[in-house]
């Protein structure tokens, strides 16, 4: 059985990952299917260095995994349930208040 501390830690890691717009874009793109870093950088129009920092954060938070493919690495959502959670959270937030915005948080490259 999970403890309250474990539950809070899990939600905090998810929240840290979602707190950055670039990490949100990465997760939404990976929700469509696995991708290589170069393809992600091109699709999201960000530098590979910046993408690498955000992917490291998402890996550290346990939300994405790196899957070796020969000399390349492919990234994907760590568990299909996370993809469903992202979809459910996005739908719920839009349903509750689609005309509400949050103030900009300090942009940080890692959790």
UniProtKB/TrEMBL annotation:
InterPro entries reported in the protein's UniProt record: ArsR-like_HTH, HTH_ArsR_DNA-bd_dom, HTH_Metal-responsive_Reg, WH-like_DNA-bd_sf, WH_DNA-bd_sf
Domain of life according to the entry: Bacteria
SUPFAM superfamilies linked to this entry: Winged helix' DNA-binding domain (SSF46785)
Domain called HTH arsR-type: residue spans: 4-100
Region forming the signal peptide: none
Cited PROSITE patterns: HTH_ARSR_2 (PS50987)
Pfam families given in the database record: HTH_5
Protein name, as recorded: ArsR/SmtB family transcription factor
Species this chain originates from: Streptomonospora arabica
High-level lineage: Bacteria, Bacillati, Actinomycetota, Actinomycetes, Streptosporangiales
């Amino acid at each position: 059985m999970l403890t309250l501390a474990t539950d809070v830690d899990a939600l905090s890691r998810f929240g840290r990952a979602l707190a950055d717009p670039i990490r949100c874009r990465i997760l939404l793109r990976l929700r469509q299917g696995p991708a290589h870093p170069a393809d992600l950088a091109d699709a999201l129009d960000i530098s590979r260095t910046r993408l690498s920092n955000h992917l490291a954060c998402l890996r550290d938070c346990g939300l994405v995994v790196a899957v070796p493919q020969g000399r390349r690495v492919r990234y994907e959502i760590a568990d299909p349930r996370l993809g469903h959670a992202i979809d459910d959270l996005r739908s719920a937030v839009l349903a509750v208040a689609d005309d509400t915005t949050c103030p900009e948080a300090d942009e940080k490259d890692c959790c």
